[in-house]
Amino acid sequence: MVDVRQISRRFGDTLAVDDATLSVRRGDFLTILGPSGCGKTTLLRMIAGFLEPSGGHILIDGKPMDDVPAHRRSIGMVFQKLALFPHMTAAQNVAYPLKMRRFERGEIAARVDRFLKLVRLDGLGSRRPHELSGGQQQRVAIARALSFSPDLLLLDEPLSALDKKLREEMQLEFRRIQQELGVTTINVTHDQREALVMSDQIVVMDAGRIEQDAAPEDVYQNPSTGFVARFLGMTSVFSGIVVSQTDAGPTIRVGDREMHGRAGCAFKPDDTVECALRAEQIRILEAGDDGCDTQVVATVEQRIFEGDRVVYQVRVPALADATLYAFDHDPLQHRRHGVNSTITIGWNAADLFAFPVEPAT
Amino acid sequence: MTGSRGKSVFIWTVTWFCVITLSAPTVIIIGASFTAGEIIQFPPDGLSLRWYDALIGQTAFTDALWRTLYVSLVCTAVSIPAGVLAALATVRYRLRFRPAIQVYLLLPFTIPLVVSGIGMMVWFGELRILGALWPVGVGLCVINLPFMIWAVSASASALDPELENAAANCGAGPVMVFFTVTLPAVTPGIITGALLMFILAVNEFLVSLFLTDSRTVTLPVQIYNSIRSVITPDLAAISVVYIVLALAAVWLLDRLVGLEIFLKSR
Q1: How far apart are alpha carbons A192 and A81 in whole angstroms?
Q2: Handedness of CA B27, B30, B36, B39 (dihedral sign)
Q3: Residue B40 has what pLDDT?
């Protein structure tokens, strides 16, 4: 439905988007995920037609968009700052794209009603944006973006300004509306939770480049680069040296220990690698429990209580003093390990990702 | 205790001094206009409306008033498109030589009115339009345009450029974006600027003096001409008409730019 082919955008000396290629299937929800400044919003604005690419092409429904100005593209967009028209009521905002696209008068009234209902704002159509709450303004923006049945919906971090509870509510709301209408959607966010909850497909970006393009589970469970592994989830990172490589994966020496891991590529002995380990995959072991492929003794440096779980920050002398993070979700065991106490932790070879060390940028 | 008392005495003294100095001429002229006597004096010699009555009879004043209003309307009408476009261009677009253009647009402020007046008189003479009434309005527009640009610029820089993107995204072409989003957003600035331009044009004396002759004389120039012959209380009466005009403009400004509240987002 949407094809972005080798697109780049240069601002002065910096490449904001560098050779990005992605495609979205009709009806899918794709999220572009990345830290601020990674080029995700630039990419979105090129799809919307507000910015011209410095190179590459965008195709919507197979048609190249090179010479199609923003107002001729059938795209609805929800802006980061919403950009509701302040001098119009909620209903006039929703009617605006219909008027501009020359819908019939009766059709406009019917659609305004239908879409205000869809976003649960029936009865508030006569209010102006400043008379509505943040969540309500958000809904007006969604209704405005969808009222003319665009082929494509773009979301430019519209949820980032909301508080956590409202944000999580709106995430589900977006997903509900998107699935109800079956509209193809591209969402941009730096919030990994939002990306995982809402998307059919996630594109992870960093420094203008696409790092990984896959389904949410895949991105989380099989990160293709060290950046993706670090960006999603609570991840401990330490470096090691490859001892040997078999089909099952590399054997890596970290400090004075050797351990098995897995990798997406084949290493040569003596390669330096970056090892990544997710906090939820580290088990805190009882005495005599040896169900893990790798076990080490660690010292608790910090104990962080997060309500539904406790996070332990531990130091592992055997791994060249690497710092690891482990979760404890079991309320019965909370508080059992104080700071400076010694615990045994372990993990399985399949959960230790090894990545080539990225050149410093 | 005494310190704060002394401070408050000082502040009130200064305040009253300013209030009296600023309003005394107005109060005196209003009082003098209601005199029943033959000369301008304050306090007035009896109360009557005879000088207002006399004013209505003097076609020199009433014709000059209508000409002034006509000239001011021309000035305002010209200044709206010119000021709006200049302000939007300098605020919203990354023009080349933007600082130079901004300085150029402020030039009328820096040039003495006498110089502008003489310049326009010579130029209008060359164009053979000196002696017509409408060029006076254009001339007044030129010298006061920075006020219009300033008022619209203030509104335009408060306008979120994303709104124009949003409108384009909704399917509005550039012309529709301008009329449905940009223009409503700068409307408070246009109203402020237009009223300012109107009242400045009504009051403008020096440049009008150069650009008018006996057939096209405007009210300020007419008053000046009258002072040079006989000073009678009808001058005070016409001045009060002026004050009322100015107050009406301020009242209108307050009423209309109260609209600004509705135009504010969040």
Answers
A1: 20
A2: positive
A3: 80
Q: Which residues of B touch A50 (CB under 8 A)?
A: 165, 168
Instruction: Return the CATH superfamily for domain A234-356.
Output: Nucleic acid-binding proteins (2.40.50.140)
Q: Is B255 left (phi over 0), alpha (psi -120 to 50) or beta?
A: alpha
Name which of B138, B157, B151 is nearest B189 in CA terms.
Answer: B151
Chain A residues in contact with B185 (beta carbon < 8 A)? 86-87
CB hemisphere CA count around A38 (13 angstroms): 20
- Interhelix angle for B219-228 vs B234-257, to 10°? 160
pLDDT at B43: 82
Q: Residue A209 in 3-state DSSP?
A: strand
Q: What is the fold of A2-226?
A: Rossmann fold (3.40.50)
B182 DSSP 8-state letter: I
Q: B171 to chain A: which residues are within 8 Å by CB? A: 71-72, 97, 100-101, 148
Whole-angstrom distance, CA of residue A10 vs CA of residue A42: 10
Q: In what order do the strands lie in the sheet with A2-11?
A: A14-24, A2-11, A55-60, A63-64
The whole-number pLDDT of residue B1 equals 52
| Of the listed ranges B112-121, B217-226, B250-259, the one predicted with least confidence | B250-259
Coil, strand or helix at B162: helix
Question: Helix, strand, or coil here: A311?
Answer: strand
- Looking at residue A272, what DSSP letter applies? E
pTM attached to this predicted model: 0.79
Q: Minimal Cα–Cα distance from A70 to chain B, Å?
A: 6
Average the pLDDT over B29-57 and give the result.
83
Q: Do A79 and B166 touch (CB under 8 A)?
A: yes
Residue position matching structure tokens 């429904």: A61
Per-residue pLDDT tens over the stretch B86-110: 999 888 877 778 888 888 888 888 8
- Return the half-sphere exposure (C-beta side, CA atoms, 13 A cut-off) of residue A178: 25
Give me the residue spans of the domains in chain A: 2-226, 234-356
Helix axes B2-33, B234-257, angle to 10 degrees: 120
- ipTM above 0.85? no
Query: Which pLDDT score, from 0 to 100, does residue A361 have?
Result: 47
pLDDT at B251 over 70: yes
Min distance A86 CA to chain B CA atoms (Å):
5
- Beta partners for residue A77, in sequence order: A154
Residue B131 CB partners (closer than 8 Å, separation 6+): B213, B215, B216
Query: A93 falls in which pLDDT band (50, 70, 90)?
Result: very high
Q: Comparing C-alpha atoms, which of A186, A193, A256 is closest to residue A219? A: A193
Overall size of chain A counted in residues? 361
Domains for chain B: give ranges and CATH numbers.
Answer: 58-263 (1.10.3720.10)
pLDDT tens digits, residue range B152-161? 998 888 888 8
Number of DSSP helices (H) and strands (E) in chain A, helices first: 8, 21
Flag whether pLDDT at A150 surpasses 50.
yes
| Distance separating alpha carbons of residues A278 and A259, to the nearest angstrom | 16
Beta carbons of B184 and A100 less than 8 Å apart: no
| SS3 (DSSP) at B130 | strand
